[in-house]
Structure formats: structure tokens, C-alpha cells
Amino acid sequence: MTDTQAVRDEANLAYDADVAVVGCGPVGALLAVLLGRRGHRVTIVDKWPAPYEQPRAVTYDHEIARILSILGIDSDNDPAVEHHDDLYYWRNAAGDTLLEVDWKSTAASGWRTRYWFSQPELEKRLRDVAATLPSVTIRRGWTATGLEQDAAGTTLTGQVTATDGGSATETIRAQYVVGADGANSFVRAALGLDFVDHGFFFDWLILDMIVPDPAGLDLGPTHWQLCDPVRPTTIVPGGPGRRRWEYMVLPGEDCRDLASERSAWDLLAPWGVTPDNAELERAAVYRFQARWAETWRNGRGLIAGDAAHLMPPFAGEGMCAGLRDSVALAWRLDLVLSGRSGDAVLDSYGTERKGHVRHYIDFSMRLGKIICIADADEAVARDQQMIAELAASDGTPLDTDLASLGPGLWHSGTAHAGELSVQGVVEANGRRGRFDDVAGRGWTVIGRGASASDVFTDAQQRLWNGLDGRWARIGTPGEVCDVVDVDGTYTRWLDDIGADFVIVRPDFYVAATAPDAAALRSSLDTILDGLHLIATDRAPVAIQ
Questions:
Q1: Alpha-carbon span 234 to 332, nearest angstrom
Q2: In terms of DSSP H, where are the helices of 424-472?
């Protein structure tokens, strides 16, 4: 143990936890798991005495599949997850196609573009993983009521519900606190962070159905929007054995009456869905909104998930954005808590994630403005325009995966930087599979021809080792290399962007690309400066 480590361990005795997370939904649970796997002490508190077992989010994309694979969840073969070889269709009342979105292909990051699941099942799996980590503690029936911070840490105060119905006041002293406590976030308010409303409000009725045998029903495409001004409607899967219908609440309608069981079955009747062939799992009215926080950090307090942003559901990216927050925050907090970075590295968390999430909020609002048209004449004009645009297109379905990070820890001006990295099938050390599983995750240089000793300066190598950074010398079958590019993914990618080197971050985003060794050294210096690294004595990490 180094002297620095000993001092840090002694200082940690003054804290109940390294990080206190408020909110035990998927965002908070994933953050706690990722930190716990790195040995950090995390206490999650949640005001509800028991987990919420009703469906909410039902879909995630390829990037989230890649994230979940960190925990050993294989979305392609998991019985609790499903995917479909079908586009996401937008159709009018006459059945004409207005828009086609690509929800069936395999994305460049190596996973399918769209998966369907049950949120309560996913949350349980995350909690089960957390339960295996001795440094993670979950406290339920714990309502945060106070938050103070000083130069050394944070003090979170809460009311704890006892089994006899009484309550007591407790405090948790932690180095950092993260609010993953939803749209009405206590932590966000306590930190004085804004939550800007962008003027998008529509109430929709959500009907979650258990449909054991959907084959006998005529439900249309697997996932689609019925752009009918009489009643805009969404029909999508809800995970294996489930379907979801969403109906826009029309002006003058009573939300409580619309969400009644009688009303639900009346709305489902045109689809042939009845109590004889389906079970109503949940009926609830939600207000779809578009909001984000301009600032995501105040000192030792940060926010994530719905506490930082809300978006309409039409792009299927709400929960996805929250889980991206967890990963982006986890690797930064790990560097700070392990004494490898100064906490200024946390400043880039909010700037990057806000820029990324705004893309999906704006895109979701554009989609919402298309479907949420209840005026017949306006709908006719929309239909005519969209049908003409579709006819004039080249027939390629719309690709929604165009977001990049906001300003932060990536070298702008280098191709593909700030975007999600490509992933292909590779072979290394006698194993074949996706790059992440075979070559490893974390800070990685993917390079052609050269090794780290050929490129890095001694100072860069020391700092790279401090990041537990890897170097993957990649090549085609038959070439001398560490990692074989089995399906040619990396050769094509590097050729397309004119690069021989790519720096990939722990959240799978590209930090920089470079055409040669000199450019790589220059870009690496930029990234290392932004990480506010503290020199450590660590050995190089080999490809697995």
C-alpha cells in the first residue's frame, strides 16, 4: 500500500459512504453497481419502502445493450429481453405510411438498434447485482429532507420509516451525493439547480397489457404510431409476453375517467383485445414533457436521469439517457475517489451529457409534434407532406443514432470524436466475440501497426497506466497484432475516417482519432490535461 493510499483510506473513515445516491431506480442502481464493482462504498436511499413493480420504460437501444453487457446481460439471448426484425412505422388513419424509422438493424456499436423489456425485471436484476457487492448498501423508506456540503464532503439528512410506522432522523456523511430521484428531484432543488421547461405538454393514457398469445390478434406492425387525429395512438411491445398501447388524452376529457378499467377495455376493443385474451396490468395517465437542467453539478452534488432531463417517449430514449448518465458519471467518480484525478474532471459530466440529451429531447419533440395533431385539416396537410417526402426519399429508414457529446473530454476536430465507438467481432488470446468482451473495456487505444512503446512518451505512458489504459494493436487475419479484426469492422472504420489510432473511453465514446503517431501524442496530451490526473505508479494493463 502506498503512503497516498493509506492517507486516503484513513480519511475515508470519516465518511459513511464515498457516494450517497438518492433514488433506487435503474439510474441510481446502475451507478451504485458500477462504483461498487470498483470497490467504492455507496449507499442508495429511496423514499419508497418497496420497489415499484409496475411497468414504465419498455425499450432500450444498442448503446444500453452495450452498457448492460458490462454486467453480463446479453440482450440478444436473454429470455427477459426481446428484439424484432421490424421497422418503426408511422401511419395515418387510412393506413398510409408517413415515416419509417430503423429499429431493426444492427448498429455500428455491435448490438441491435432496439430491444424491449419490463423495467421492474431489469431493476430487480440491478438490485440483485448490487446485493453481491459488499460495498453497496440499499436503504428503503428513507426520505431525503436536508442536504449540506462543505469543502470535505456532503451531509444528507433523511426521515427513516420504521417497521412500526414511526420515523427517525438519520444523516449520511459522504464525499459526494448524486440525485437520481426523478423529475421532482429533492437533490436538484437542494443544490439550487435549474430545470428549464421547453413548452411541450401532452397527456397520454398508458395501457400495459399481458398478452400471452398475440399471434391470434391483428395488431399491425410490431411497433408503430397511428397518427389519427381522432385519437393519436402508439402500439409497441412491452417485453416478452407484453404489449403497450398509448392514447393521447383529447381536449376536454377527464383523465381519471379515461384511465378507468371500463374505458381501457373500450379503447382496446378495436384491436380484438378483451379480458378473455389479455390482462390489464396497468392504466395510468402521464404528462409527456421536455425539460433539462442547464447545470448538473453544484460542488459535491450532482444529478442524473429524470432529475436532470425529461423527454417525450416517441424516440424511446428516456431511460436510455439516464443510464448513459450513470456510466458517464461512474468512471469520473472512480478516478476522483481513487485519487487519480482532481474533482474538476466532474465538470465535463454535465456539459457532455446535456449536449447529448438535448439531441434526443429535440428529436422526440419533433416526433411528438407530428403525432399529437388532433385537428383533422392539420392532419391532412401533415399526411400529404410526409407521404410526398417519403416518396421522394431513397427508401432508407430514418436513422435516429446521430447524437454526439457536448463539449468535454474529447478532442474536437478529430474524426468521430465525441461519438459512440464502433464495435466488431475480434479474436484475441484464443477467444472470439465482440471487442468489449474479448479485448476488454476501459480506456483503450485501438491502433494499427504500432504498439504503445513505439508511440507514447514516458510521461504519457505513466499517466496512461494510471488510467488502467490498454493498447489494442489491431490487424487483419494473418497480420502480427494483439487483436484480430475478424469481420473487418475496424479496418473499414479506420479507413473511412482516415485514422490509424482511436482513443476509446470507458463509456465507449471516442475521445480522439489520429492519422499518425505524432497526432495521437498531441490528442492524448489534450485528453490527459482535461482529466486533471494525479500521477500514480501503476503497471500497464494487458489485453485480456
A1: 38
A2: 435-439, 452-455, 458-466
